[in-house]
């Protein structure tokens, strides 16, 4: 593709197209692998993200729905939908906030904790496998490069 563009448009440097084509293909392949891993645990990516956010919050593994929505960049309605599905499965419990009974909190159930612990173990193994061909010494620099692209892409236009 790059060589074809160089031939057709020698006035342009199409090398950035190659970077983003690779990034897109890597993202799609990684997304499929992640979905397959989480699917073996009966979870989709959104459900895993909620459970993982609660698990990372430390005991008692409890957050407000608003904090979860902000952390996952979701609308309140989308968060409510996810929480309802997870609650129906017994993976989370909604309770009054012990500090202020007027506000609710979402707490990881024992079943939810066991599930997310198993899923995250497999998830990390999948991610490690996806990085098998990236030398350990290059991973921090690779992360920094991707963060720079993300900052540029999400910055002011």
From TrEMBL:
This is DNA-binding transcriptional regulator, MarR family. It comes from Blastococcus tunisiensis. The keyword Transcription regulation applies. Gene3D superfamilies: Winged helix-like DNA-binding domain superfamily/Winged helix DNA-binding domain. GO terms for biological process: response to stress. GO terms for molecular function: DNA binding; DNA-binding transcription factor activity. Keywords: DNA-binding, Transcription, Transcription regulation. Residues 16-151 form the HTH marR-type domain.
């Amino acid at each position: 593709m790059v060589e074809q563009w160089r031939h057709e448009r020698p006035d342009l440097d199409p090398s950035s197209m190659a970077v983003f084509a690779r990034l897109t293909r890597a993202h799609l392949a990684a997304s499929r692998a992640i979905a397959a891993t989480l699917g073996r645990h009966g979870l989709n990516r959104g459900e895993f993200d909620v459970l993982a956010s609660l698990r990372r919050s430390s005991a008692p593994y409890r957050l407000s729905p608003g904090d979860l929505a902000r952390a996952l960049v979701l609308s309140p309605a989308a968060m409510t939908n996810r929480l309802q599905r997870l609650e129906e499965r017994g993976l989370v419990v909604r309770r009054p906030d012990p500090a202020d009974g007027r506000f609710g909190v979402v707490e990881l159930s024992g079943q939810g904790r066991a599930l997310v612990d198993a899923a995250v173990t497999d998830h990390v193994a999948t991610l490690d496998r996806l990085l098998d061909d990236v030398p350990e010494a290059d991973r921090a620099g690779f992360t920094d490069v991707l963060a720079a692209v993300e900052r540029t892409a999400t910055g002011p236009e």
